[in-house]
Amino acid sequence: MPDWVITGLGNPGLKYRKTRHNAGFDVVDFLASRHACSWKTERRFEGEVAVATIAGKSCLLLKPQTFMNESGRSIGALLRFYKMKPEHCVVVYDEYQIPVGGAKLSVGGGDGGHNGLASVKRCLSEDSFSRYRIGIAPETSTQADIKDFVLGKFTGLERKNFESSLEQFADGITHIVDTGPQLAMNLINQRKTKHDSDARTEAQL
How far apart are CA 167 and CA 176, in angstroms? Predict the structure, then answer.
Protein backbone atom coordinates (compact mmCIF):
# COMPACT_ATOMS: atom_id res chain seq x y z
CA MET A 1 0.00 0.00 0.00
CA PRO A 2 1.34 3.47 -0.84
CA ASP A 3 2.16 5.91 1.94
CA TRP A 4 0.83 8.93 0.02
CA VAL A 5 -1.30 9.80 -2.99
CA ILE A 6 -0.30 12.99 -4.82
CA THR A 7 -3.04 14.14 -7.21
CA GLY A 8 -2.79 16.93 -9.74
CA LEU A 9 -6.08 18.35 -11.03
CA GLY A 10 -6.63 19.34 -14.65
CA ASN A 11 -8.48 18.57 -17.85
CA PRO A 12 -7.29 15.84 -20.23
CA GLY A 13 -6.59 16.43 -23.92
CA LEU A 14 -4.40 18.68 -26.07
CA LYS A 15 -7.00 21.47 -26.00
CA TYR A 16 -6.33 22.11 -22.31
CA ARG A 17 -2.59 21.48 -22.26
CA LYS A 18 -0.58 24.26 -20.57
CA THR A 19 -3.72 26.19 -19.59
CA ARG A 20 -3.82 27.85 -16.19
CA HIS A 21 -6.45 25.36 -15.00
CA ASN A 22 -3.99 22.52 -15.65
CA ALA A 23 -1.36 23.80 -13.22
CA GLY A 24 -1.96 20.74 -11.05
CA PHE A 25 -1.21 18.41 -13.96
CA ASP A 26 1.96 20.36 -14.74
CA VAL A 27 3.26 20.07 -11.18
CA VAL A 28 2.77 16.29 -10.91
CA ASP A 29 4.20 15.85 -14.43
CA PHE A 30 7.31 17.66 -13.24
CA LEU A 31 7.40 15.52 -10.10
CA ALA A 32 7.17 12.34 -12.19
CA SER A 33 9.99 13.56 -14.41
CA ARG A 34 12.15 14.45 -11.40
CA HIS A 35 11.78 10.90 -10.05
CA ALA A 36 12.11 9.26 -13.48
CA CYS A 37 8.75 7.47 -13.29
CA SER A 38 6.33 6.96 -16.18
CA TRP A 39 2.56 7.32 -16.41
CA LYS A 40 0.24 4.36 -16.89
CA THR A 41 -3.47 4.52 -17.65
CA GLU A 42 -5.55 2.82 -14.93
CA ARG A 43 -9.15 2.47 -16.05
CA ARG A 44 -10.31 1.34 -12.61
CA PHE A 45 -9.25 4.77 -11.29
CA GLU A 46 -10.27 6.73 -14.40
CA GLY A 47 -6.83 8.27 -14.40
CA GLU A 48 -3.13 8.06 -15.14
CA VAL A 49 -0.90 6.75 -12.34
CA ALA A 50 2.84 6.82 -11.71
CA VAL A 51 4.79 5.31 -8.80
CA ALA A 52 7.57 7.30 -7.11
CA THR A 53 9.67 7.08 -3.98
CA ILE A 54 9.72 10.54 -2.36
CA ALA A 55 11.58 11.22 0.90
CA GLY A 56 11.94 7.46 1.29
CA LYS A 57 8.18 6.87 1.09
CA SER A 58 6.06 5.13 -1.53
CA CYS A 59 3.88 7.62 -3.40
CA LEU A 60 1.27 7.21 -6.10
CA LEU A 61 0.98 10.17 -8.45
CA LEU A 62 -2.45 10.54 -10.02
CA LYS A 63 -3.88 12.61 -12.89
CA PRO A 64 -7.67 12.11 -13.09
CA GLN A 65 -8.89 11.83 -16.69
CA THR A 66 -12.52 12.55 -15.80
CA PHE A 67 -12.35 16.28 -16.58
CA MET A 68 -11.99 18.77 -13.77
CA ASN A 69 -15.52 18.81 -12.35
CA GLU A 70 -15.53 15.03 -11.77
CA SER A 71 -11.99 14.71 -10.37
CA GLY A 72 -13.26 13.31 -7.07
CA ARG A 73 -14.50 10.11 -8.74
CA SER A 74 -10.96 9.17 -9.71
CA ILE A 75 -9.37 10.08 -6.37
CA GLY A 76 -12.12 8.38 -4.38
CA ALA A 77 -11.80 5.15 -6.40
CA LEU A 78 -8.05 5.02 -5.82
CA LEU A 79 -8.24 5.71 -2.08
CA ARG A 80 -10.98 3.11 -1.61
CA PHE A 81 -9.00 0.50 -3.55
CA TYR A 82 -5.96 0.94 -1.31
CA LYS A 83 -8.08 1.49 1.82
CA MET A 84 -6.32 4.80 2.44
CA LYS A 85 -7.61 7.72 4.46
CA PRO A 86 -7.87 11.15 2.80
CA GLU A 87 -5.31 12.54 5.26
CA HIS A 88 -2.65 10.75 3.20
CA CYS A 89 -3.75 12.49 0.00
CA VAL A 90 -2.36 15.76 -1.40
CA VAL A 91 -4.49 17.52 -4.03
CA VAL A 92 -2.56 19.97 -6.23
CA TYR A 93 -4.62 22.54 -8.11
CA ASP A 94 -4.69 26.08 -9.51
CA GLU A 95 -5.63 29.07 -7.35
CA TYR A 96 -6.86 32.35 -8.86
CA GLN A 97 -6.11 34.32 -5.67
CA ILE A 98 -2.36 33.51 -5.52
CA PRO A 99 0.27 35.13 -7.80
CA VAL A 100 1.98 33.03 -10.45
CA GLY A 101 4.97 31.34 -8.85
CA GLY A 102 3.36 31.24 -5.41
CA ALA A 103 1.81 28.33 -3.51
CA LYS A 104 -0.15 27.76 -0.31
CA LEU A 105 -0.85 24.64 1.70
CA SER A 106 -3.89 23.99 3.87
CA VAL A 107 -5.99 21.15 5.29
CA GLY A 108 -9.78 21.41 5.37
CA GLY A 109 -11.90 24.41 4.42
CA GLY A 110 -14.21 25.38 1.58
CA ASP A 111 -13.81 24.81 -2.14
CA GLY A 112 -13.34 28.50 -3.02
CA GLY A 113 -15.54 28.08 -6.09
CA HIS A 114 -13.11 25.58 -7.64
CA ASN A 115 -15.14 22.87 -9.37
CA GLY A 116 -12.40 20.27 -9.16
CA LEU A 117 -11.97 20.73 -5.43
CA ALA A 118 -15.75 20.70 -4.93
CA SER A 119 -15.87 17.31 -6.63
CA VAL A 120 -13.08 15.97 -4.41
CA LYS A 121 -14.91 17.15 -1.28
CA ARG A 122 -18.12 15.45 -2.46
CA CYS A 123 -16.45 12.13 -3.19
CA LEU A 124 -14.18 11.68 -0.18
CA SER A 125 -15.46 10.49 3.18
CA GLU A 126 -13.38 13.00 5.16
CA ASP A 127 -12.27 16.56 4.53
CA SER A 128 -8.77 15.85 5.85
CA PHE A 129 -6.78 15.85 2.60
CA SER A 130 -4.07 18.44 1.96
CA ARG A 131 -4.79 21.25 -0.48
CA TYR A 132 -1.68 22.43 -2.33
CA ARG A 133 -2.77 25.55 -4.21
CA ILE A 134 -0.65 26.76 -7.12
CA GLY A 135 -0.90 30.44 -8.05
CA ILE A 136 -2.27 31.51 -11.45
CA ALA A 137 -3.38 35.09 -10.66
CA PRO A 138 -3.02 37.56 -13.56
CA GLU A 139 -0.09 40.00 -13.58
CA THR A 140 -2.56 42.85 -13.96
CA SER A 141 -6.31 43.08 -13.37
CA THR A 142 -8.41 41.49 -16.07
CA GLN A 143 -12.02 41.91 -17.15
CA ALA A 144 -12.14 38.38 -18.53
CA ASP A 145 -14.68 35.93 -17.16
CA ILE A 146 -12.97 33.70 -14.59
CA LYS A 147 -13.89 30.55 -16.53
CA ASP A 148 -12.37 31.96 -19.72
CA PHE A 149 -9.32 33.15 -17.81
CA VAL A 150 -8.48 29.84 -16.12
CA LEU A 151 -9.05 27.91 -19.35
CA GLY A 152 -6.71 30.30 -21.17
CA LYS A 153 -2.96 29.91 -21.45
CA PHE A 154 -0.32 31.75 -19.46
CA THR A 155 1.28 34.77 -21.07
CA GLY A 156 4.94 34.35 -22.02
CA LEU A 157 6.15 35.99 -18.80
CA GLU A 158 3.65 34.06 -16.65
CA ARG A 159 4.73 30.77 -18.22
CA LYS A 160 8.38 31.63 -17.56
CA ASN A 161 7.64 32.45 -13.90
CA PHE A 162 5.49 29.34 -13.51
CA GLU A 163 8.03 26.95 -15.01
CA SER A 164 10.91 28.46 -13.03
CA SER A 165 8.88 27.71 -9.86
CA LEU A 166 8.24 24.02 -10.60
CA GLU A 167 11.30 22.93 -8.61
CA GLN A 168 9.98 24.89 -5.63
CA PHE A 169 6.51 23.34 -5.99
CA ALA A 170 8.02 19.84 -6.14
CA ASP A 171 10.16 20.60 -3.08
CA GLY A 172 6.97 21.57 -1.26
CA ILE A 173 5.42 18.18 -1.98
CA THR A 174 8.59 16.50 -0.75
CA HIS A 175 8.29 18.42 2.53
CA ILE A 176 4.64 17.36 2.93
CA VAL A 177 5.54 13.69 2.43
CA ASP A 178 8.62 13.92 4.65
CA THR A 179 7.30 15.92 7.61
CA GLY A 180 3.51 15.91 7.25
CA PRO A 181 1.30 18.84 6.19
CA GLN A 182 1.30 20.75 9.49
CA LEU A 183 5.06 21.23 9.57
CA ALA A 184 5.25 21.72 5.80
CA MET A 185 2.80 24.64 6.05
CA ASN A 186 5.35 26.62 8.05
CA LEU A 187 7.78 26.48 5.15
CA ILE A 188 5.46 26.65 2.15
CA ASN A 189 3.13 29.40 3.37
CA GLN A 190 5.94 31.75 4.40
CA ARG A 191 8.00 31.31 1.25
CA LYS A 192 8.20 34.25 -1.12
CA THR A 193 7.70 33.64 -4.82
CA LYS A 194 10.73 33.66 -7.09
CA HIS A 195 9.05 36.49 -8.99
CA ASP A 196 8.91 38.57 -5.78
CA SER A 197 12.58 37.88 -5.10
CA ASP A 198 13.55 38.92 -8.63
CA ALA A 199 11.56 42.13 -8.27
CA ARG A 200 13.32 43.00 -4.98
CA THR A 201 16.71 42.30 -6.55
CA GLU A 202 15.93 44.58 -9.50
CA ALA A 203 14.78 47.34 -7.12
CA GLN A 204 18.16 47.23 -5.36
CA LEU A 205 20.17 47.58 -8.56
Answer: 14
Q: What is the pLDDT along the chain (205 residues), one digit of tens a residue?
A: 899 999 999 999 999 999 999 999 999 999 999 999 999 999 999 999 999 999 999 999 999 999 999 999 999 999 999 999 999 999 999 999 999 999 999 999 999 999 999 999 999 989 999 999 999 997 766 666 888 899 999 999 999 999 999 999 999 999 999 999 999 999 999 877 655 544 433 333 4
Q: Is 88 a catalytic residue?
A: no
The pTM is what?
A: 0.92
- Annotated catalytic residue within 21, 114, 175, 195: 21
Topology (CATH) of 4-204: Rossmann fold (3.40.50)
Following CA atoms 173, 179, 183, 189 in sequence, which dihedral angle do they give, to the nearest 10 degrees?
-10
